[in-house]
Amino acid sequence: MVPDKSDLLYAGSGFRFFDDLENHCYTKSLGLKDLSAPHENKIENEPLRFEPITLTKFWHPGEWIWKGHIPKSFCYLDTIQSMFSDLSNYFLDTKWKQDITDYADDCWDSRNPSCYDHQMEFFLKDIWLTHEYILGPGFTNLLNTHWNPRLEKIVVHPGGARRKIENLFGGDTFPAFFFNTGGIHFDFLEHMEPLDLDYWFNPSVHISDKNEWWKIDLIPDHGSMIPHCSVDLMDIIASKKIWYEKLYNRTTDPNFKIYVDDKSGHDLVQETLLTWFENAGWLTEHRSDCSVKITYKNCNDTESIQKAIIQSVYTCFAEVDFETQNVEVIQCN
Question: How many folded domains does the chain comprise?
């Protein structure tokens, strides 16, 4: 099922705001039990039996899932300042050497806030994804995006960690799925392609040579049904455990040393990164015995040096080489 591209582009906006869409049309139009009914009229644990593609009937004129490149300037992204603050807290609290001997398996799931350690795990996921992104190059699987009319920005959701890595290491555009909520039109849609929904909503679609299958869920929001396109992966927790072990083994090895050549002309390198590394016992003044060499070049403003520091830390521990006009990271041995 693929409509004519020109019909979508010039359908006009059909946007309507229903913050409680499920009570307006979601369950009633499907003939399902009204979720807003009093408790005594509901059947506990009653399954909702329908195919997700059925919910596309609630899309407005011009709405569709598109595939192509999104300009980063249209997107709501994490600020460099917020990412730098998270990284600073990670090192100040020495999360890199946290003992997880008694860290239960269910604690690796962010849906278990009673024991989930966000500060430790965000860094593990970020360096794992940095490793994947740099060696890719880029991510194997597309980011999922949609227009958020409240923010008046395109948001990446789900996929917050990959959004950060794309922002740190990507260019001016990135490949993605995009849902133009309300039928909103952008010029870049001319260079994207509408998805064949019959194909992409097929639960058996096999995308790559990995054990990955795409799935599309439709979530009521912004007066429509917002698609969440994602690969059905089972190895997120396993990958975080692997990278915890890699990071712990490397950073607790007495022979692990980092040589820093600071030509940035900015005090922030000394005030933050060199202090983090010195307190951890990783700094060396000798290039010959370093495990990683980091060179900071001329940076004219605080945000540029903050970004360079984040990039260097992530690639240092992701065990990959990296270079921009502001920073160079070389894995020595």
Answer: 2
